[in-house]
Amino acid sequence: xxxxxxxxxxxxxxxxxxxxxxxxxxxxxxxxxxxxxxxxxxxxxxxxxxxxxxxxxxxxxxxxxxxxxxxxxxxxxxxxxxxxxxxxxxxxxxxxxxxxxxxxxxxxxxxxxxxxxxxxxxxxxxxxxxxxxxxxxxxxxxxxxxxxxxxxxxxxxxxxxxxxxxxxxxxxxxxxxxxxxxxxxxxxxxxxxxxxxxxxxxxxxxxxxxxxxxxxxxxxxxxxxxxxxxxxxxxxxxxxxxxxxxxxxxxxxxxxxxxxxxxxxxxxxxxxxxxxxxxxxxxxxxxxxxxxxxxxxxxxxxxxxxxxxxxxxxxxxxxxxxxxxxxxxxxxxxx
Length: 335
Fold this sequence. Notes:
eight-stranded antiparallel β-sheet; Glucose Permease (Domain IIA); mainly beta
């Protein structure tokens, strides 16, 4: 039984998928609030729903208030394990919540959602699962106060509070790029100049181990996913011809995407080296996280188990390290 469980877990990891979720961005939390809008600051009663704002009990809370009408469905922000939590420990009508310990892309993170009535009190959940319903706030210490209905959302990384605002709204974190690298882990220092490339990030991209029909483990080349939304997919070779002969090495082969949506038009482009596309190039709609290609196989090159990614804004290199790693999804100042 233990061996079957191990094989099942391996199969969960190695199944090739056509789409992966954005790395660092949190989907809709409350039913009806499709862009995760936050409670105003100041609100009608002069309290504040922003990160670090003063709440009804005069506390300054390192969390945000997500607008949420009473009895609305509340969804899991990411894959993880839930446990019941009392945020105030005072047995009031709003003293109910859930703690979600992250898995996959969100290992190391914990989300706490308060002012909800859970529909389950433990076990594993997936991103987007209904985990409870929002409570009415009529029993607050100041019942005469007038404020927008909401739930409280707090996020922690390695036990330290994190401002979740730009993980929830206007999220500009990129998608997972390599199938075998869930967290976009770096193979070298971030945002470096690399000879023959430009300025960007070297990401680990090792072969994927998968189970064959006869029960043996075999390796295959990992899939490549789109880091941004795009409207055009193409191929490029960064190095010029040498004596009229084109260089077909892995490091001289890549994919480029012209941005679309929040990565609008010609403002943003993404280049991925040591990769080839697996879908037809040209003008089309490309979703962030969509499978677009595969890593190349050049065992004679030291770069073979990595890919290199550049992100450019209006043709210029820009440091988007936090967006790549999913640590801070607010777009940095661009000039």
